[in-house]
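Q: What would this complex look like in 3D?
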Amino acid sequence: MNLLEDTAKKNVAVNEDWYAKAQKRLDNLTKPPGSLGRLEEFARRLVAINQNAMPSLDKKVVFTFAADHGITAEGVSAYPKEVTPQMVFNFLRGGAGINVLARHAGAEVVVVDIGVDYDFENAEGLRAHKVVRGTKNFAKGPAMTREEALKCIEVGINLADEFAEKGYKLFGTGDMGIGNTTPSSAIAAVLTGRPVAEVTGKGTGISDDSLKGKIKTIESAIKLNSPDPKDALDVLAKVGGAEIGGIAGLVLGAAANRIPVVIDGFISTAGALIAYCIEPKAADYMFAAHNSVEIGHKAMLEKMGLSPILDLNLRLGEGTGAALAMTLIEAGLKIYKEMATFGEAGVSDEIIN
Amino acid sequence: MNLLEDTAKKNVAVNEDWYAKAQKRLDNLTKPPGSLGRLEEFARRLVAINQNAMPSLDKKVVFTFAADHGITAEGVSAYPKEVTPQMVFNFLRGGAGINVLARHAGAEVVVVDIGVDYDFENAEGLRAHKVVRGTKNFAKGPAMTREEALKCIEVGINLADEFAEKGYKLFGTGDMGIGNTTPSSAIAAVLTGRPVAEVTGKGTGISDDSLKGKIKTIESAIKLNSPDPKDALDVLAKVGGAEIGGIAGLVLGAAANRIPVVIDGFISTAGALIAYCIEPKAADYMFAAHNSVEIGHKAMLEKMGLSPILDLNLRLGEGTGAALAMTLIEAGLKIYKEMATFGEAGVSDEIIN
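A: Here is my prediction, written as structure tokens for the whole assembly.
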């Protein structure tokens, strides 16, 4: 059995008995039942995922997977692809949005080169797991071979296993890759069955005309490559990206290790959807960080039954939304662990009508 | 000139030149323009409110105003009014939701007795500013005299002045008072002009039948007292509550001191709306923390032109939503202050289409 099959098998459904156990404590805290809304949901899910009545989130990490995309040759992005390695160096120096927001959340950032078309040599702090030097232009043929796509997923699984072993309790996903909303929209279209135009947006900020071109490019690329919607690995290989594969692997690996994983925005959700289509039980371990500005995001979240935590018009990626959402998920756990019960506080819990 | 008039006069519109200054820096940070959505809005507003290109939020405080309500005699709440003082003691011991979430946000909690029907003697840590021992039952006559309502507002203004003087940079509002969704719905109906049924919800969790009774109670109380919608102080006195007046004063005082103030949920927003109807410029200093489950909340936010930051199905009050939103507002400021610029990071900012 290979690593992917083995990991997918370890994605077991969360035991719902733990929800009831957690809810019992939540209902005994000094507040009207259910009045802390989704904070209570976060606490319940953390208890159930950890199978532990008093879980901890002390070690948190956001994985930012970086890769390039041959499809940028079609003019689908507002930025040149040189920006991908430039931003990787920015991550390593701590100056990017994800660095700031991860510090705010008390999380570390792990930057992974999984497919950047640049030789980083031994850049300090970078995890070097390059599978491809950028994908091929999938307007002309498959983005990757099936073997390469599988390798990307394995990179994510191995990182999940490693950081689970090191005692991390909460993972976040992130991405960097000029052009990567294009493969994400392609994945969204193929795996949700929606028309390309309904799941394709302006990425980092292209014009209306360029958006039309981007939609046409994706439509004809899907026709050319005919990825099999029943085979997520085929979809990842033909119209995906290396960082999207890494994220898919990280999600499957998180679930296999019973670690909750916060899915960032549009690109991360495309990765999570690949994971979900390989093993739907992975969704039990996912938290959807936010509702991205990218219009295809919602369709993918709906397919997986996830409700985004934040809605702040974010569209940066990198894991920024995941880091922000971590602060709210942790708030939910603190409520659960630190609030006084009615008995402890001498507060009446009698409801009079 | 009295304290309220003096304070309202100091509520000056924010100078919009600062928005442009802040946006210039935001657009020079290593991200596509606008890609951090509302986080950028928070930073812009903090810069403009502070009239400072590098503002700080190091000292933060949530004020939780507690009071009782004579209207509970009409059976409008799911809990007995004894819970108000019990919860005050819970706040003082640090065991309530607001204590947990304020700690999470790095904010202090100041608990204010502005109208609880209980003798706290010299309870440690409590700010004793009792104006009334609970309001009168406004189903039978005015909740307070005009003088009492004014005194409540002055309590809030004085606290704002005191904590501005002490160097606090961000205020949050909160409330505790069994029965206080009822005066808040009455205020919402009178000041937004909407029918009572459209702005009245289940509070801490009453039954469908009790909700019908609550709506009827409010409708006939408004008829009986005929508060003047053009005179917010009259509305506060006749169908309001002491904590709502304290919150209104705190908001006006915050704006007068150019301190941003995070408005919690339904009850706090009723207080903010009183402030807004006294001086609409106060809205320039408000951040709406969240979208409460209470159905009347949205109408009040719309009237003031505010968009809620969070939507997590919260309905606890106390300032819990304000504390949570503080963590996101601070994240916006950190992005603005800590991210590298394109020049610093050697990242291309050239948009190619």
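A: To summarize the key features: Strands of chain A lie at 60-67, 107-115, 126-128, 170-176, 261-263, 286-288. The domain at 3-55+336-345 of chain A is CATH 1.10.1610.10 (5,6-Dimethylbenzimidazole Phosphoribosyltransferase; Chain: A; domain 1).
Q: Very helpful, thank you.
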